[in-house]
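To the wet lab folks,

You asked to see what we're planning to order before we commit. Fair enough. Below is the target structure as tokens, and below that is the sequence we designed to fit it. If anything looks off to you, flag it before the synthesis order goes out.
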């Protein structure tokens, strides 16, 4: 599972490196987005087949949070230190970050949907959220 997340991160970094000196095109973005989605599918497949979606969710959220906390500020500093904030470097960073985040969101949504499809829920406990006791009505209130 972590191999797919590392590959996803490498796809985004490769997108930044490739488009840093070039103009960003829609076709280039589409290729990068498909590569990121493929890496996310590689990450998602074991989670769905093995029935452990929590590991997929945790790894993907850690990747997104790590990129947001460490990667984006570092990349933006590199863009602004080059002195060309309106050129291809900024577009490359934004394009790769968007492709990575969209692939992660698609993977999280798909993972949640596919893991809850068989009734196991997002935690894989077999609980559907219903206690089976029809006499208990829980409307979210804490009163008696």
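Sequence we intend to order:
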């Amino acid at each position: 599972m972590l191999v797919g997340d590392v590959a996803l991160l490498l796809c985004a970094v490769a997108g930044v490196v490739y488009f840093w000196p070039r103009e960003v095109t829609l076709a280039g973005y589409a290729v990068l987005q498909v590569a990121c989605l493929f890496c996310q599918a590689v990450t998602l497949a074991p989670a769905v087949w093995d029935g452990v979606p929590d590991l997929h969710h945790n790894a993907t959220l850690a990747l997104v949070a790590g990129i947001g906390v460490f990667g984006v500020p570092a990349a933006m500093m590199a863009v602004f230190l080059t002195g060309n904030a309106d050129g291809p470097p900024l577009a490359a960073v934004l394009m790769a970050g968007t492709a990575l985040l969209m692939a992660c969101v698609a993977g999280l949504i798909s993972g949640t949907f596919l893991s809850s499809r068989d009734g196991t829920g997002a935690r894989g406990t077999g609980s559907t959220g219903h206690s089976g006791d029809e006499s208990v009505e829980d409307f979210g209130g804490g009163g008696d």
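Structural context that might help your review: The radius of gyration is 20 Å. Residues 53-82 form the longest helix (30 residues).

Thanks,
Computational group
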